[in-house]
Amino acid sequence: MPARASQAQGPKKNAVTPPLFNMNRIRPISSIVASLVLCATGFAQELPAAKPESVGLSSERIGRIATLVQQNIDDKRIAGAVTMVIRHGQVAWLDARGMADREAGKPMQQDSIFRICSMSKPITSTAVMMLYEEGKFLLEDPISKYLPEFKNPKVFVKPAAGQPYSIPATREITIQDLLRHTSGITYNWNKDLGQQYADANVASGLLQYDGTIGDSVKRLAGVPLLFNPGDRWEYSLSVDVLGRLVEVVSGMPLNDFFRTRIFERLGMKDTYFYLPADKVPRLAAAYTYYEGKGLSRFPDSPIVEGTMAYSADYPYNGPRKLFSGGAGLSSTTRDYARFCQMLLNGGSLDKVRVLSRKSVELMTHDQLGPISEKMGFGLGFGVDGVKAPLSELGSPGEFGWGGFYYTSFVIDPREDMIVISMAQLHPTGGLGLDKEIQVLAYQALSD
Q1: Closest Cα partner for 82 from 264, 391, 357, 331?
Q2: pTM of the predicted model, to two decimals?
Q3: Which region, left, alpha or beta, applies to residue 203 given φ > 0 means left and ψ of -120 to 50 means alpha?
């Protein structure tokens, strides 16, 4: 894990400085913060900017985020990043630094676009809850009621000796199981079922796929479950199944539902499954980090790790048929901040109500109960500090998640605060920068 933030060194003298700051050399943190606040006004649009002190944050202390990120850039652990802190509905910190494309010499910008991967999951979960609020289904309903291919599921059994086999599951998968990842479905990298997923041509959402989410989900339904529904938590393709549920129940392709029911209403202008040609240049380049090799640009061909394969060009190259509810979206910090603020507000933003307050309460309440002794997980989010003590600075009940290419967010109702960080890195080599950024946001609280 990198050195603690309090020990981070300042930016190196020859560090690349983005045009955002319009300066030829690094200025004091207080001056950087002033520039950030001024720039945030135009960028965040309806999310107003504020001086950190006006929302209970220290300018000096929140500036440590810039120092830490710059240290990781100088140390060649990341190419660049955008970080954002919102408190009381106002942008108190916004920082774009480093390079969006190191090889092309393209600086990171406030409107750089990132592959957000599993940060797509909360958006899909929101779409499901919108339909739930319309009376389309109950969360306790079996998914087979709407996707009949999931009727009579079977469970994988791997004996100590002999060939694996499958047996009937003890019960059917419910919509709640899918939302909280207790369905028995897993991901393509699973050592027991990954090869069966590959053989069945089940999409991961991180690679070009010549088929629709409906095609992939039908194939997934033919593969045994890893365990009986409700027995335990397993991060999974459950949210891709939910994406298909949204399509079937709403009668709309998932991309159209997202666009008309969520993105346009929230003013999320840069969030897509597949980027328009004129926005592709804003997509930050992806990088890998391997011990002994360091930071390298993602290869042109997919990376294959056992039964799992992933690419970096899927947002703009390929058939463009798969709308992966679990991993497919690309977005900006500004767009995702608006989605987060809607949730923090209890389901509405700028007089546009997406969800009821009670639905947001349900989504952000631990749904695992005795299924997991320590982990808290709601309907689409991890929920921290509700079952076990917090391991880092934060608040009990904060919720959030992260993405495959090193993006993350946390929403804290108690502090009325949102922290978002976006880079583009996988594998990460064990980098803990995302968590350290969250720590630095909390240590800046001054009220």
Answers
A1: 331
A2: 0.89
A3: beta
